[in-house]
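JOB MANIFEST
job_type = single_chain_structure
chain_count = 1
residues = 269
[input]
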Amino acid sequence: MVRAVSGSGAWNAGLAAAEGRCKRNKVATVAGKARGKAKAKTKEKPRVGFRRWALRAVLVLSALLVMAILGYRFINPPTTPYMMRESRRLDGVAQEWVPMERIAPVMARAAVAAEDANFCRHWGFDMAAIRGVIARGEVRGASTISQQVVKNVYLWQGRSWPRKALEAILTPAVEIAWPKQRILEVYLNVAEFGEGVFGVEAAAQRSFGISAEQLSSSQAARLAAVLPDPKRRDAGRPSDFVTLRARSIADGAATIRRDGRAACFGADG
């Protein structure tokens, strides 16, 4: 009897010890899980914080761009990134803003004929011109006046993919927010017409000694002829190529006037 009781006591003691170990293991497991969750949360916090920061940055940038697009519909851009860069390089540039009413209609038609003949018919991208460029295997040549305005006013020069992506986003926004006449007005005031010469007013004065509203058809065509390559072409002292190109532009400007493609920017009269 004494041995039986002693054995039973040993059994009970062993069982109690096993239960104690089991409880300790459970506590350790729970504690381990808690520590694991705490570590996971610690790892997640930086990720969540970065996502929130990135989202806020995108929202702030988007808001600033919207404000800039809407603002420049009514306020003339004081300068452009490229103009500032050239001003630093050349220690100053020539540019004088003039409203559309003080630009000769022949100049507006010549610029459209030279750079974007379908300006009044597209929504920012000339798909027919783009298809033609692709078919010919060219890498450039289909940029519309709207795209050039976005590049000149809001972005930077070059052909990087980030710039092209932003241009593709901003161009339709500008087309929606600005009337066509405003797009062309901004273009004619910020486009480069020569080394350190920006805008049609400064170009007319530099090349011909007159204001933009006094330009003749041939003078306007010569100014438009230098637009694709203003650092190597000169409207005041035109090469044979510029002279021939100007004649073609003058014919195109007359055609645009006849078929109504100048109505959207008020130069069809």
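[summary]
The radius of gyration is 34 Å.
The chain has two domains: 1-75, 79-265.
exit_status = 0
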